[in-house]
Design brief:
The complex is a heterodimer of chains A (351) and B (541). Chain A is an alpha+beta fold. Chain A has four domains: 74 residues, Ubiquitin-like (UB roll); 167 residues, 2-Layer Sandwich (Alpha-Beta Plaits); 29 residues, no CATH class; 40 residues, no CATH class. A five-stranded mixed sheet of chain A has the order 2-1-5-3-4, with helices on both faces. A three-stranded antiparallel sheet of chain A has the order 10-11-12. Chain A has a two-stranded antiparallel sheet with strand order 6-9. The longest helix of chain A is centred in the last third of the chain and has 19 residues. By secondary structure, chain B is an alpha/beta fold. Chain B folds into three domains: 186 residues, Dimethylsulfoxide Reductase, domain 2, CATH 3.40.228.10; 187 residues, 3-Layer(aba) Sandwich (Rossmann fold); 112 residues, Barwin-like endoglucanases. In chain B, 31% of the residues lie in helices and 17% in strands. In chain B, a hairpin with a 4-residue loop joins strand 12 and strand 13. In chain B, helix 5 packs antiparallel against helix 8 and helix 5 runs parallel beside helix 11. Classes of the chains: A alpha+beta (351), B alpha/beta (541). The interface between A and B is large, with 112 and 143 residues. Strand 13 of chain A pairs antiparallel with strand 11 of chain B, so a sheet runs across the interface.
Chain lengths: 351, 541
């Protein structure tokens, strides 16, 4: 039996165990969050997802409250707005507010909410962090001053990756996510999967390789499938000026739900490597000489045709690639059977 | 994958990745997903966090092995003995699923007779794993409500690879652990599109969609569509083509995006074969060991430069989308079309979607697939018609063999092709690490990745390192009957005494000079996972 709940005056029937936030998101009702990520267990840390439930004297965090039959829920009210503004003001009181040169500007959840709720960092003046930017590894840049202590990075590292690279270190005002003994990230303690970067709602953790290469709104994002192992993760190639400059998560992907590994997230530079073969090459006197497509394909067609005529189609064949697309594999199989006339076609690496 | 095809009908994983969190008992066999398939490992970790029991069959003490309820640290190449032993224990204790065996399988009597010979004591001798661990693993697997076997290249990259996969199917069938959500056999595929490449016909004995070239009906369907006569004679496997080349009996090869001169075993042989080929064309995105032997090199397009589809390890056909123009002006599908047309067989496609439409017309399992249906989530085959939603779990009612029954195959332990001896006392296992990929041509060119893992390291156990006076980071010479390489040593408990481990990602330490020439006779898959080597400390003279 489904549970009947009312959200902002509209009735919904809910099957199974869902939180209020789940139901709101599934029904297209927007509830602001900072510490929530669907890949993680509910946390209830940022207090932005507060909602009012009739009969309960205080607001509840929608991300940690299970839906019960008969609940009447309000997601927007003056009280809720006041509380959300307060939370955001407190967060921004210890934040650099340097959005004009922040890598994350345009993709920053905190920036978006500050704009939406019209708050800035001036309401509460006090001590602020003044810690150096950390670039102790090739992949992940850490700007602790921009951390809002939502713990998404430490939770994804512990709950999802189970790598335990980082956790919340220190106490009170000095609490911050960091490695053991605040040492550098190395392969000994970190997988460099960048999951922490993908979940960070601010500019505290960013992809070092993509820094300065263009902000989110300027990127053409192309959803595609990873070309490394057989898992088939989806992600977005971020393209600017005809170059792939970054990979970002696709949270709707059926296989990986936004998760990626080191190769998927950071293994894209080969695309623009100077060592790419850029023109056909024909071997002449033991050396490779650049050629046009017409020359090269003309030569290949003639030589294969000669071989077929001289030795018969059974002496010619093709190896296909598990790296190429389905369509290309099909075409190679078709080419060998139709243009050569044999069945000598195989997957080279049978792994 | 020929193994699963023989036993169950289709050479493909039976379930979906997203079903993994609900597994009750996970049997991870010859797979190290935290390194080889990191995102699959995240699904499995979810199951572990929910309290799933874990059995790991692996000679290396992997991340998963450390957390296993039962770690079966078997000798490399003793997979069949282990699986027969597990089935023996299950049958002896009456833990089998008799109903399932009776209704959905055939050949049980032969299996029963065979596995009787594999009592835990004998299996302990063959595998090196204590009998009580084998009994406990059998209990955990057979008693689970939903048990899944996840296997990797540690199963297939043996000379008995196909039989290993059949032995895995035997175990699942005996317990009825198949044909339900979160319950089945998942084979983790090594390369991004192994599944698709197998599905779509670059195989010598089958036309696209596993349709035998020897079947006249199949041939006539393709002949009508392709408007040519198709030879009924199965072609040569890639390894056979190379063998024939070396003998001077094979003249021309087109190699699309592969690097056999680095990634195939017994490299000296492969290189001699490529050298002897009269006309060799290689298409790749980088110069590789293989392109050196080419007469013509054609530039390839990376996945970012073309439209198309890949099929993943759970049979999901997903879109690849063009993000930038091909660096060399053309993608492979365009090159093949032009080449074919020049050779007198016309091929004209405006877009890869037209090729997929042609595939859908000829390959029943892809019958309902077209680009307009692949926008967000992809589709898992079999998808026979336009209105079919795809298939998340295979074999819920029938197996895809004639008669709908799965088949038990009685198998014997054979062991690896090459075993350690006095001269070559160590077993070399090869595999991947998380940071790199295959011949490394892509990952070695990625900033950061090459920085954190710049070189090959030989993993060796502390006990063996002590005995040979090898220090962590010191140079060693690794030699086999076929050649030798020099690498740095990494002393780690991940390696068991007697076993060492190397990857094959680095061009300056060609691991496959060492690996043996033994292959699975059915699929031709090389025995990458086991060969005999000796290790010597290397000191600068």
């Amino acid at each position: 039996m489904g549970k009947k709940v009312t959200i902002n005056g509209t009735q919904f029937t809910v099957e199974g165990d869902r939180t209020i936030l789940d139901v709101c998101r599934e029904s297209g009702i927007r509830v602001p969050t900072l510490c929530h990520d669907e890949r993680l267990e509910p946390y209830g840390g940022c207090r932005l997802c507060l909602v009012e439930v009739k009969g309960i004297p205080r607001p509840l965090a929608s991300c940690t409250t299970p839906v019960q039959d008969g609940m009447e829920i309000i997601t927007e009210s003056e009280t809720l707005t006041r509380l959300r503004k307060m939370s955001l003001s407190l967060i921004l009181s210890n934040h650099p507010n340097d959005c004009m040169c922040c890598e994350e500007a345009g993709a920053c959840a905190l920036q978006e909410l500050a704009y939406e709720y019209d708050v800035d960092g001036r309401r509460f003046a006090g001590e602020v962090w003044d810690l150096p930017v950390r670039e102790d590894n090739p992949f992940i840049t850490y700007e602790p001053n921009k951390c809002i202590l939502c713990a998404r990075c430490t939770r994804i590292c512990q709950e999802v990756v189970m790598a335990d690279t980082i956790e919340l270190t220190g106490r009170g005002f000095n609490t911050m996510p960091d490695t053991a003994y605040r040492g550098p990230r190395t392969l000994e303690n970190c997988e460099f999967c960048g999951q922490c970067v993908s979940t960070c709602p601010t500019g505290a953790l960013t992809d070092r390789k993509g820094r300065g290469k263009g902000r989110a709104p300027r990127m053409k994002k192309v959803k595609t499938t990873c070309s490394y192992c057989g898992t088939g993760c989806n992600f977005f190639l971020n393209v600017k000026d005809g170059r792939v400059v970054k990979v970002t998560s696709d949270y709707d992907a059926p296989v990986n739900r936004g998760n990626l590994c080191i190769k998927g997230r950071y293994g894209y530079d080969f695309i623009h490597s100077d060592e790419r073969i850029k023109t056909p090459l024909i071997k002449k006197d033991g050396k490779f000489v650049e050629a046009t497509w017409d020359e090269a394909l003309g030569l290949v067609a003639n030589r294969f045709t000669e071989l077929i005529q001289k030795y018969g189609p059974d002496k010619v064949g093709g190896f296909s690639s598990s790296r190429c697309t389905n369509e290309e594999n099909y075409l190679l199989a078709k080419w060998v059977r139709c243009a050569i006339g044999s069945n000598n076609v195989d997957n080279c690496a049978r792994v | 994958m020929a193994g699963l095809a023989t036993s169950l009908g289709a050479g493909a994983a039976t379930n979906s990745l997203s079903q993994m969190p609900d597994i009750d008992t996970l049997f991870l066999f010859g797979s190290n997903p935290t390194e080889g398939h990191p995102i699959v490992s995240l699904w499995l970790k979810k199951a572990l966090r929910r309290g799933a029991k874990l059995i790991v069959g692996d000679p290396r003490k992997t991340w998963m092995a450390k957390r296993a309820d039962v770690w079966l640290n078997l000798r490399p190449g003793s997979n069949i003995a282990m699986l027969n032993g597990l089935i023996h224990v299950i049958l002896q204790n009456g833990w089998e699923n008799r109903d399932f065996i009776a209704k959905r399988t055939e050949g049980f009597d032969e299996l029963f007779a065979k596995v009787r010979e594999y009592d835990p004591g004998r299996v302990e001798d063959l595998t090196g794993v204590p009998a009580e661990k084998i009994i406990e693993a059998a209990r955990l697997y057979s008693h689970a409500d939903k048990a899944m076997i996840v296997y990797g290249l540690g199963v297939t990259e043996h000379r008995t690879g196909t039989e290993n996969a059949m032995a895995i199917a035997n175990l699942a069938l005996v317990c009825g652990q198949l044909g339900r959500p979160s319950t089945g056999i998942m084979a983790l595929r090594g390369q991004n599109n192994v599944q698709g490449a197998s599905d779509l016909g670059p195989l010598p004995a089958t036309l696209p969609g596993y349709q035998p070239v020897s079947d006249e009906k199949v041939r006539s369907k393709f002949e009508q569509a392709w408007k040519v006569k198709i030879s009924p004679k199965p072609g040569l496997k890639s390894v056979e083509m190379l063998d024939e080349c070396k003998r001077g009996n094979f003249k021309g090869i087109f190699i699309l995006g592969e690097d056999p001169a680095q990634t195939d075993p017994d490299l000296h042989h492969v290189r001699a074969a490529l050298e002897a080929t009269e006309f060799l064309v290689v298409q790749d995105i980088f110069h590789t060991e293989t392109t050196r032997f080419a007469d013509v090199i054609l530039p390839g397009a990376s996945f970012a430069e073309k439209d198309g589809t890949f099929t993943n390890g759970e049979r999901r056909v997903q879109r690849v989308r063009k993000a930038i123009e091909p660096v060399a002006g053309m993608a492979e599908w365009q090159v093949l079309s032009r080449l074919s047309t020049l050779m007198g067989y016309q091929m004209h496609y405006n877009h890869p979607s037209e090729i997929m439409d042609e595939i859908a017309g000829l390959v029943p399992i892809y019958g309902g697939i077209s680009y307009d249906r692949l926008k967000e989530k992809g589709i898992q085959w079999p998808c026979p018609t336009k209105d079919h939603p795809g298939t998340t779990t295979l074999y819920t009612d029938l197996f895809s063999r004639p008669g709908g029954l799965a088949k038990f195959v009685a198998l014997d332990h054979k062991g690896p092709g090459e075993v350690p001896d006095e001269q070559y006392p160590f077993v070399l296992i090869t595999g991947r690490i998380r940071e790199h990929y295959n011949n490394g041509s892509m990952t070695r060119r990625c900033a950061g990745i090459s920085e954190v893992v710049p070189e090959e390291l030989l993993e060796i156990s502390p006990e063996d390192a002590d005995a040979l006076q090898i220090t962590d980071g010191g140079f060693v010479t690794v030699s086999s009957r076929r050649g030798e390489i020099r690498v740095k040593a990494k002393v780690t408990k991940r390696s068991q005494p007697g076993n060492v481990f190397l990857t094959f990602h680095h061009r300056d330490a060609l691991t496959n000079i060492l690996t043996s020439e033994y292959r699975d006779p059915i699929t031709g898959t090389p025995e990458y996972k086991s060969c005999a080597v000796r290790i010597d400390r290397y000191t600068l003279a």
